[in-house]
Amino acid sequence: MRSVIWLILLFVAAVVAASVFGQNDALVSLFYGHWRLDMSLNLFLLALLALVMVLFGTLQAAQALLSLPTRAREWRQLKRERAAQALLREGFGEFLAARYARARRAAQKALDLQAEALELTQDRNFTVQAHLIAASALHRLQDRGARDEQLGLAQACNGSGSTSEGILLLSAQWAMEDRDAGRCMALLSELPPGVARRTQALRLKLQAARQLGRPMEALQTARLLAKHQGFSVGAAQSLLRSLAVDALEQALDESQLLRVWQGLDEADRRDAWVLAGAARRAAQLGLSQQGQAWLWPAWEQLQRLDGEGREQLALALVACVDAVDTRWLPVMEEALSRYGREPAIVAAAGAVFAHRQLWGKARRLLEQTASAEGLPSRVRRQALRVLARIARQEDDEAQASHFDQRAAALD
């Protein structure tokens, strides 16, 4: 299309020239001293146009000749800049290929060339990226001193902005990989609130809190990660359970245990695994009454739980059996009628009946518990000791010694 337009314009110019110059009879006379030169106006205009073109070409050639040193200098600067950019890309590629020594050397050469390229020296992003590549390579090479030096240079060049936030996150990640959870927490605390809620920052905070032994802080962080879909549903549930149980296990007295329990979410307090962990810890602290009080509402809704949940509650009840009263008897009868094939339910019912001195009901259940290899050793040992006590009450010392020997043989 463009060529057609130019062709039309050329035809128009030819028509105009033919119309204007075709019948031009004017003359141009040039006088110099005693000399006179006459020429047609058409020839004069063509000569004038040629002269202008010659002068323009001469000026262009002179300008090109005079600017040759400048253009040569600019070409050399451009060549250095391109070489520096190529080295930066090479360093990043070497780092991805796990050739960390080469990546560091390439990044350092890029910085050296940057110092010689005047325009590139003002590019802070180039400097920061080169220092970060070098620092990342040094981190993989376990040269922490040189790594921190490169990281400091990157922070000094960057100033502020999203890259600065990225440098802090990278520093926190490296601190976590160095098993320095305290430094990781300190670096994360320097992040703006919005950045601190990002998934990567929350993951690092979770790891640091767990390493520092702060399960409540880790639990809150894990809950935020689960809200932001940082884990799958199953992994989030398992992690939240584990952290809640760890927080309960760290309680050293009744006040601490109650404070941790109240600090948990309602959903955590309804979880069978967390509830069982709280009851077991209460029993370990001599607070069996509190433990069985926590277990009671869950046992009333036992049919809503799966097999693993029922097992956890049953084993926790065995630990808190010293505090059970008569209201547990019909509950245990109903549980046996529904889940009498589950060893943990059998163990809990046997322990409750034995505690209430219902020896006839308890004996068979305790014998089943002692023979159930899938149950924890402490539960089986407890059942064997109760069986030994029952045998001694019946003056059967041989049977009692047999039960004691079986209990002692358990790990």
From TrEMBL:
The keyword Membrane applies. It is found in: Cell membrane; Membrane. The keyword Transmembrane helix applies. It holds the Pfam family HemY_N. The chain crosses the membrane at residues 41-66. Keywords: Cell membrane, Membrane, Transmembrane, Transmembrane helix. Residues 28-117 form the HemY N-terminal domain. It comes from the Bacteria. It is a multi-pass membrane protein. NCBIfam families: TPR_hemY_coli. This is Heme biosynthesis protein HemY. It comes from Ideonella oryzae. The lineage of its organism: Bacteria, Pseudomonadati, Pseudomonadota, Betaproteobacteria, Burkholderiales.
